Amino acid sequence: MSEFWEMTPYELNLTAEGYWERQKIKQKSDQKQLTYQAYLISRWVWNKDIKIEEILESIDENQQEKKVMTDEQMLNQVKMLNSLFGGEVKENS
Q1: Confidence grade of residue 81 (pLDDT, cut at 50, 70, 90)
Q2: Which letter does DSSP use for residue 66 in this model?
Q3: Fewer CB within 10 A of the terminal residue: the chain, N end or C end?
Q4: Shortest CA distance to 36 belongs to which of 51, 46, 47, 22?
Q5: Is 21 helix (H, G, I), strand (E, B) or coil?
């Protein structure tokens, strides 16, 4: 904490930017780890043959794009993930 009082504003800004970059990297790693754990659990509990490579690639693509989705695009994404996990699409009339 004593280092804080000796920092220039520029050094403080660099430290803060470095911290946020490390947090982004950690969050990405944590998300992949949680996805992989969910994959293993789904294979063990429901005996489904899910292709983990497709899911992890999808996560990587989504993190790179960072774009706003319309409601229809979001619904299509949910349907795609549902079909990947072996679910059924039921349309309400």
Answers
A1: confident
A2: -
A3: C
A4: 51
A5: helix
Cα four-point dihedral sign 85, 87, 89, 90: negative
Tens digit of each residue's pLDDT (9 = 90 or more) over 32-66: 788 878 877 777 666 667 777 777 777 776 666 56
pLDDT of residue 64: 60
Q: Give the pLDDT confidence score for residue 65 in this predicted structure.
A: 55
Q: For residues 81 and 93, give the distance between their C-alpha atoms in angstroms, rounded to a whole number.
A: 22
CB 55 within 8 A of CB 84: yes
Amino acid in the structure at residue 75: L
Give the distance, in angstroms, between the CA of residue 46 and the centroid of all CA atoms in the same chain. 23
Q: Give the whole-angstrom CA distance, residue 72 versus residue 54.
A: 22
